[in-house]
Amino acid sequence: MRLKRKAFYARIGMACFCLTLPCLFIVSTVSFSAAAALGVVYILFISLVAVYARLRARRQRKRGWRIFGHSSSKCYLEWRDGKWRGLNVGHVKQHNRQKIFVFNTHEKWMEDQGDAMTDHRRAEIIAKVKTEFPPSRYTYRNDA
């Protein structure tokens, strides 16, 4: 938990650093009052991003599950015993402007199942995934 918090603050710090360079350039080219106003807006923006991230994490922890993934691969995570425990549920691909969520097959599901992720919960987990990826924007494969 502590490591994740440090990683979160490291990301915020990196964002602050990346946004500081353009601000320094603007400060050097405009008057002091405009630079002060820009600095206030900058600090407000960073604060709002940090608050949003904390509230989102708290909401996900309270809900007890979340969908996580980079690029197309998606992982279903549950909050159990103070840790996020996960299962790879499938991937998203795009075909002619249509997004398709391809769930893992039954055999792949049984291979990849994590702690407390049993086969009889597959329908429940797929229903939760469908709430994050609504049928109005996605079609599904292997969801039976």
Can you walk through the features of this model?
With 144 residues, the protein is of the alpha+beta class. It folds into 2 domains: 62 residues; 77 residues, no CATH class. It contains 4 helices and 5 strands. Strands 1-2-3-4-5 form a 5-stranded mixed sheet. Strand 2 and strand 3 form a beta hairpin. Helix 1 packs antiparallel against helix 2. The longest helix is centred in the first third of the chain and has 32 residues. The radius of gyration is 21 Å and the shape is elongated. The chain starts with a helix and ends with a strand. The mean pLDDT is 75.
Rg computed from alpha carbons, rounded to a whole number of angstroms: 21 Å
Determine the structural class based on helices, strands and strand pairing: alpha+beta
- Low-confidence parts: none
Largest sheet: 5 strands, mixed
> What series of H and E elements makes up the topology?
HHEEEEHHE
Taking strands numbered 1, 2, ... along the chain, how are they ordered across the largest sheet?
A: 1-2-3-4-5
Helix content: 40-55%
Roughly what is the average pLDDT, rounded to an integer? 75
> Separation of termini?
36 Å
Q: Which shape, going by the Cα principal axes?
A: elongated
Strand content: 15-25%
